[in-house]
Protein: Amidohydrolase 3
Amino acid sequence: MKKQIFMNGKVMTMNQEQKECEAFIVEGEHIIKTGSNEEILAFQKDKIKIVDLRGKRVIPGLNDSHMHLLGYALSNKKVDLTHCRSLEEIAQAINRYIENEDDQYFGEWIIGHGWNHENFQVPQLPTAVFLDEISQERPILLSRACYHIGVMNHKALEMVGFSQETENPEGGHIDRLPNSEKPMGIVRESALYHAHDFIPGPEDVMQIQDLILDACQDAVKVGLTSIQSDDFGAVKSPNTVLEAYGNLEKSGALKVRMNLQMLLPTLDKLQRFIKTTGIHSQMGSERLKYGPIKILADGSLGSRTAALERPYSDDEETQGVLVYGDAQLEEILRYGKSQGMQLAIHGIGDRTMNQILGIVEGIFQKDEINHRSRIIHCQITDHAIIDKMAKLHVIADIQPGFMPTDMKIVERRVGRDRVKESYNWKTMLEGGVPVAGSSDSPVEPFNPFLGIYSAVTRRNFDGEPKAGWYPEQRLTVEEAIGIYTLGSSYATFEENSKGKIQEGYLADFIVLDRDIQTIPPQEIKGVTVEATYIGGECVYSHEETRQK
Structure:
């Protein structure tokens, strides 16, 4: 097998027994030795390739524990409304999109994403009447940044079949005009997901493969070597997603290591999927593995659909949405467990997290501590929830990159008394909760250095507040990198092969443009990647990286 020596680096190993080294040897896809330059060069033989790291900081490859890779790829085909600060700017963006549209990727539908009315100069939700002014001939659907609320024009409402006679679907809501049953265009949770079922999308396997490869190329540029992705919701058939990833893995084209999170929201869908595919968690190769089933148990804070124990502070008429009753959710999770499936449940509100933890406690025996069930998001917590997560060995999949956006609204949504025990990542780590780092892209960018910056500084991207938002919850740089390496690897039962630069581990690592451990924290968000290696192969290289 091919051997390579990497030397002259400032290598953060994430191995507590040897935190730093200068050099290491890679044989095939694995690291076989670490040490000083002198120690490693003593193993030099003829024809061994030497890579000079030129004193650069090297860290293990970063691992996003929850995102939507195919959703990210598809978002590049939609109207990007991320930077809109008014309804007028939304209209302008859609009209530009229509003028420059090369092909109708989603058929006649106009699909937009990323708007956040909390960022508008005048915070207000778009409506069907507003979208009708843009087009009455083509259906329009715009998803908010959280992807838990959307707005449709009347053409789209008609095509989906939402009318004044339509009842709210289970786990969702169709907003109505005042003193009327007529839909106003705003749809939440399962109502939004139902609308998506009517939108044409890529069904050709080759087309989906191209989308995946394009997204992976973007990912390696920011240092992601492993991705745990929830992609079943992006297309009509999960089997198409499985086939696309399988083809890429077999052909060797899939460079990023993928772990697939499988969105199967009903017992019927879960049973049919398992019976037809025979898949269970941890099946697969080092390049492509099948991960947990994914369940959406509530909504988001931005749309006030995250389920809370007490009403929202800025809307006492609502406590959010529990998508499932206790018995229904338990039936799905219990069946998943019986079929060898790891469990990953979306939970943002404290009511949802208590529901999930109560069910997990009931279906796992006290000695079944290695189930590694996961709660994705874990935003509105309290000390009792955190203590119970630690007791039950439940993993918290957090998104530090949410904080710069959420800090603008969360105190208004839930009040300071609840916020002070929420987004408590330091408390989680110190309390023994396994924590994995992620982006939830395309909700937020998947650049992990934005998440690391947020976790370390507790500031927004303008550097505010200078003292940090609840600064007692700041993580150290090592802790923040740890949740994107050690934590994310633990979440997929791969902590003995990923997340460290250590003998026997996969040679997945990245070379940075500056020393993330010594630069001012405010600079972390600007760290860039000079080279990304996966299995010892350079899959991305900046021109300043020199090999000899």
